[in-house]
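Everyone, study these two lines:
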Amino acid sequence: MNNVILDSQLLSTLMSCPRLYDFRFNHRFVPITGKSNSIESGSLVHLILENYYKLIIAGNDRLKARSDSIDYGRARFEEFNSIPSTGEQYKTGLDQILDTLNAYFDYYRGDFWTPLEVEVVKGKVIYEDNDLRVLWKAKLDLVVDTNQGIYAIDHKTMKSRRDIVSLNNQFMGQCVVMNSRSMIINRIGFQTSLKMNEKFSRPIVSYTEDRLAEWQEEIVPFYANLLLQYQELGVWPANFTHCENKYGVCQFKEVCEVNKSLREEAIRMEFKVGEKWDPSNQEPANENNS
């Protein structure tokens, strides 16, 4: 029996490019320059919201939870190297993040959601046959009772508006581990030119039973078996259709553009070995770079 552990980052990266999977998760290469402003801005938002909803679960009223969480964000600010104190061109600053979250708390001051769990990782065996067992792990930003059901909530920050695409391993995985056919995206926009109802929205992403079954019983097992083949052969072929997408270019593009004999040096110049990947350490997704 082969046991495979997957989450949305592992599966999506494997689907995109096996070589990228090898670089990111087998060798753990991360840029020497550190994380991008988009990722770190999203991380700080997640930390503030995590603190806010934990305080509410602990019995604090929303005004105190809001004030304490904004102060908490200020205190954690120095940990984020790419976030300036004031916004710069192409960079979101601390002032913009805190202004956005204050506006978020104002917009949802009459919120009827009851938070149940915050930043929790859930695991579930989603597929098993005679040869393969797949454990899926999903990190849930928030689990709430909306009075219409209990749903996983995924916070997503954005600098520009994009349509929601339901063809998403993260969303489907969250539904499967929650035994639900729907999840909710908590969209938080940094744009200063938009109205509040455009900056903040909570669209529901829903699936039919058939779509989730196909993902769980056919798509995930196929890629789990493919991963086992790559591991057995020790060959991780590049997929050149993933080198450029709507979010920019792959961070390893220049590594792949040099001769094979020079790649090790190219990696040494631009990357370092980071922490071992774990779903509990997942970076929050930003709609403009993920």
